[in-house]
Please model this.
Amino acid sequence: MLTPRQTNLLLEALIVTSLITGIASWMVGLSWARPFTAIHAVSGVSLLLVAPLKIRGSVRTGLRRRRASRWVSLLFGAMVFGAIVLGLLHATGAWFGVGYWTALWTHLLLGFALVPLLVWHVWSRPVRPSVVDVNRRALLRVGMLSGAAAGVVAMQELAVRLGGLAGAERAGTGSHEIGSFDPERMPVVSWLDDRVPDLDPGDWLLVIGGQPATVDAISAAARPLVATLDCTGGWRSDQSWDVVPLATLVPDGPGRSIRVVSATGYSRLFGNDDEVYVATGYGGAPLRRGHGAPIRIVAPGRRGPWWVKWVTAIERSDRPPWLQLPFPPT
Model:
């Protein structure tokens, strides 16, 4: 049995691990997302397994003391529990959809809302780690707990597959498939407060390397490429995009990266040698307005925030591609 002190430290470590791995699964490419998603799931289930120890110990004691802050502590616990349940609902496909008010996005909102509450909880009830807390018995029990949590996650995945639930077809990122090779069914979403620009594609102004360019000329040189758009909103879609390599469009010259700018002001930096393309259509048809028409970025292996829509400018930049926020502010 873990001591109350060890239980508190473990819970704090698990919550921090869940937050870090959840954010990291967004930031890394598709090939690296699976281990972060797996650790995120195991840490979440571990929280459920440790919770009874917390309830039997310090929670009961705290409630008997009738501190005014006990209601904040109960809210903190309820939000952690709610975030875990919502994550499970998304993973199984029991509650899945497109948009902000879905199980996944509510899970994310609760996760971010937990950060200030976690800071308050640690500050108001400090438990300083000690060498005494990390003993052989404690490590063994934490290892057993992690193994049990991993077993629960594995059984959940097996049950989802045997039951034929929607979650059986999730990608390593946790995203559900929607509308593959059927652009009409592919969702129309944008990053946070980005909005579809109210501009006529016929009057679209595209500038490449400081010079005007035409979308028609790029379309004429486009070739099909199958790539997966994996949105951070929890869905993915495979499409055959009509593309031209990004690097071939920009004139040779100095610069450590290529900057792509959207009509909305949204922008991303790409390395000069990155496998990135510009697309003017999919499946032989022009892009739809909600999908970035008349021209957008296709970035195989990267999550949705890198797939810039409604491109108006492509230019070389002296900034290295790593010198940018992992997620655009708009």
